[in-house]
Design a protein that fits this description.
Elements (H helix, E strand, L loop, with lengths): L9 E7 L3 H12 L6 E7 L6 H6 L6 E5 L6 H10 L5 E4 L5 E2 L3 H6 L8 E10 L9 E2 L8 H8 L9 E3 H6 L13 H9 L6 E13 L10 H8 L8 H21 L3 H14 L2 H29 L1
Helix pairs in contact: 5-9, 7-8, 8-9, 9-10, 9-11, 10-11
């Protein structure tokens, strides 16, 4: 049975650091929500720009600022926001992302006793256009048991799309704050929540926008924190499931090796993805391996021309 209008208080947790050039778009998207029973908890990592000045200009008592030094661990900021939340439902939103005006209403209308965590698609916003790059961060419906599906398929739950019961986050003692797990602490949280509930709901709609930065975590081998995030749970997988999980790590590591021009290592990892991965990982690995082969022929051709 759905709850009546405005009976649910959504607590929107927004960590931020020196995002004055983005924060207005983020906050305006919440102020423009058709569903109005919300609060915003901004956890400011002592920004050195005019972030605080811009936030103060809103003069809205639904917006709360907490100054907290997170020492590079964004999970710590999110945990502070969760602890100070008054609502029974937590919404995560990064300060450079934003939502469509109907985001909260759509999520509200789907909340019932069979839902503990909601997620949806996000449209990718780039500084420069990229013809062959994907346009959306798409989620995927998860099958029961969700824990195994998350391990085998990987993390399709995008942080700035998540609406989750506060009690679920409290049950797992919040997000993991290990430095080595930075950028994958959200995946680890979804895995731990799936140990206590299978009530995950995917909404196949783009209800928000994800700003993709050229640098970000692209300079980091994401297979390392990804492996750390999933390590406590892989003992429940059978041999075939474990290979599919490992293929995700292999593809992720191969993509990093490719960017670093470590082509031999990348080739081995993409080959593993082709052999053992699910359909998506196979296709992505084939594509990347094809790029490697093409690049190799280009290098050989260039070298021969120089020597001729």
């Amino acid at each position: 049975m759905l709850k009546s209008n405005n009976t649910i208080l959504f607590s929107v947790v927004i960590p931020t650091y020196n995002h004055a050039h983005f924060i207005n778009i983020c906050l305006d998207s919440i102020l423009s929500q058709t569903y109005t029973n919300w609060e915003i908890i901004i956890v400011n990592n002592f920004s050195e720009d005019n972030t605080i000045e811009l936030i103060d200009a809103y003069k809205d008592n639904r917006i709360k600022i907490i100054n907290f030094r997170n020492n590079g661990i964004i999970a710590a900021s999110r945990n502070i926001g969760i602890k100070n939340a008054k609502g029974d439902w937590i919404c995560f939103l990064d300060s450079d992302d934003w939502w469509t005006p109907n985001k909260l209403q759509v999520c509200h209308d789907r909340i019932n006793e069979n839902v503990d965590l909601i997620y949806h698609d996000l449209k990718i916003i780039r500084n420069q256009s990229a013809i062959l790059s994907r346009k959306s961060l798409k989620g995927q419906k998860l099958s029961s048991p969700v824990l195994i599906d998350l391990l085998v398929k990987g993390n399709f739950i995008n942080n700035s799309s998540v609406v989750v019961r506060k009690i679920c986050l409290e049950s797992i003692d919040g997000l993991n704050e290990e430095l080595q797990m930075v950028a994958c602490e959200d995946y680890n949280a979804w895995l731990r929540i799936s140990q206590i509930t299978d009530k995950f709901l995917y909404i196949p709609a783009r209800l928000g926008f994800y700003r993709l930065h050229e640098l970000g975590y692209s300079q980091k081998d994401m297979s390392v924190p990804l492996r750390l995030a999933s390590a406590p749970f892989i003992n429940i997988l059978n041999e075939n499931q474990l290979r599919k999980h490992e293929s995700i790590l292999a593809y992720t590591g191969g993509s990093y090796e490719y960017k670093k021009k470590c082509f031999k290592s990348a080739c081995l990892k993409f080959s593993y993805g082709i052999r053992y991965g699910n359909t998506l990982i196979k296709l992505k690995s084939i594509y990347m391996l094809g790029r490697l082969i093409f690049m190799k022929f280009v290098l050989i051709y260039t070298s021969q021309n120089k020597n001729s």
